[in-house]
Specification:
Elements (H helix, E strand, L loop, with lengths): L2 H18 L5 H19 L2 H18 L3 H29 L20 H8 L15 H13 L8 H46 L3 H26 L6 H6 L1 H10 L2 H14 L5 H14 L2 H18 L6 H14 L10 H13 L14 H27 L12
Helix pairs in contact: 1-7, 1-10, 2-7, 3-6, 3-7, 3-12, 4-8, 4-13, 4-14, 4-16, 8-16, 10-11, 10-16, 11-12, 11-16, 12-16, 13-14, 13-15, 13-16, 14-15
């Protein structure tokens, strides 16, 4: 059975459970929350081991084959370009479509979020490099340590050959274990969907956020089904770009319903390797970078959300200079969300409201009831971006073995 089909069936069962189980009962609700937390922990369990050993051997091979700079340039370019495209899509859609105002509530500020940039730098450079392996949230910490080892092993290939041989074996071992985890994660989607459906039902029942949800859904279809395939079609000269979208189904399902970008990483790496044929040295280097930095989905929903907040408070048109500020600030904040694999989109919106000031500091409270849905869409955008983006980098680096669609997992 195809992996995506397992995830789809589990998703449908999870939705059914939300309607069958007495989730209003505190004991049942608590049990669902507990199981969902265990599933998320299970899904993240193998991320750092897989990432660490794979990045070491990937950087070693890329440097040895003189592809490190080329891969880095293409990866950085795709990350920046995709984030900018998503920000523009969000801006254009919300400027064209006049969504209904959100009713003003009398809620008080419950505390503004902060990006904690200084803490991110501390995570990258702790007092001991081994501490980076304990950080399962901000993945760039262990990634940086692995890069250092991977590059250094190229200095003397003969002396460090035992190290690279061991790391190569460990990378394959950890990947094999992670495959087992992704198979069992499909069953965990039942709990995740049950938990998500309960929250979604509460949001959709009010009807206040339904127009926004519909617009974000249309934006996702436009991006995943038109813009990205066109980019791949002409940039990679690929006549069948929708193969990538097909390979992304289970990743998008997991991303949307969990709202956790780290949880999707192993699925993206697996589908990239086994479905799209992306070589390990690209797969291991590119996907973690997309997970941490390619958060254009957060920029899109932040732009949409803030302009909705503006229109809810004021009937005046937004000045053009403010539109530019909102766009580029949302775009910039998206690169600083690596420490927030879950909930980053709403944190971005909170920070934007705080930075804009002018009595908008607590404006994010208008969208707080819809925060889980906002974060769901943002993570789905980011998951499909990672799949399309990694494919582009692999094609440009000529490190891909194309598989027929019947061989996709």
């Amino acid at each position: 059975m195809k992996v995506w089909f397992k995830y789809l069936i589990a998703s449908l069962l999870g939705i059914a459970c939300a309607f069958i189980l007495p989730v209003n009962n505190p004991s049942v609700s608590g049990a669902v929350n507990f199981v969902t937390e265990l599933v998320v922990r299970f899904g993240r369990y193998m991320i750092v081991p897989v990432l660490f050993f794979t990045v070491i051997i990937s950087f070693n091979r890329l440097r040895e084959n003189r592809l490190l700079i080329k891969t880095g340039i293409w990866t950085g370019s795709v990350i920046v370009a995709s984030s900018f495209i998503l920000t523009l899509v969000g801006l254009i859609s919300i400027l064209i479509v006049k969504l209904p105002r959100i009713p003003i509530t009398g809620e008080n500020d419950t505390g503004s979020a902060v990006l904690g940039i200084a803490d991110l730098f501390r995570a990258i450079l702790p007092y001991s490099a081994f501490e980076t392996l304990n950080n399962g949230t901000f993945l760039i910490a262990s990634y940086a340590f692995a890069v250092l080892i991977g590059i250094e092993t190229c200095v003397d290939q003969v002396a460090f050959r035992p190290v690279t041989t061991l790391v190569d074996s460990l990378s394959k071992l950890m990947y094999s274990i992670s495959v087992i985890f992704t198979e069992f994660l499909a069953y965990g989607m039942i709990a995740i969907l049950c938990f998500w459906t309960v929250k979604f039902r509460a949001v959709i029942t009010s009807g206040v956020f339904t127009p926004m949800i519909i617009m974000l859904l249309v934006d996702f279809i436009l991006v995943a089904g038109l813009i990205y395939p066109l980019v791949v079609r002409y940039l990679c000269n690929d006549p069948h770009p929708y193969r990538i979208l097909y390979a992304s189904i289970s990743s998008v399902l997991t991303a949307f319903f969990s709202g956790d970008s780290n949880l999707v990483l192993q699925l993206n790496m697996r589908h990239g390797k086994e479905s799209l044929g992306i070589r390990r040295r690209i797969n291991g280097v590119v996907h973690p970078l997309f997970t941490v930095f390619a958060r254009g989905g957060s920029a899109l929903v932040t732009t949409v959300g803030f302009i909705m907040i503006w229109r809810s408070y004021s009937s005046l048109n937004i000045p053009f200079k403010d539109i530019l500020w909102i766009t580029f600030t949302s775009f910039g904040i998206s690169f600083l969300l690596g420490g927030f694999p879950a909930g980053g989109a709403f944190i971005s919106l909170t920070v934007l409201c705080t930075l804009y000031s002018r009595s908008f500091e607590t404006g994010f409270l208008l969208l707080q009831p819809a925060a889980p849905i906002i974060c769901s869409f943002a993570t789905a955008f980011d998951a499909v971006t990672a799949m399309y983006g990694s494919y582009i980098v692999a094609v440009k680096a000529k490190l891909i073995e194309h598989h027929g669609i019947k061989h996709f997992i």
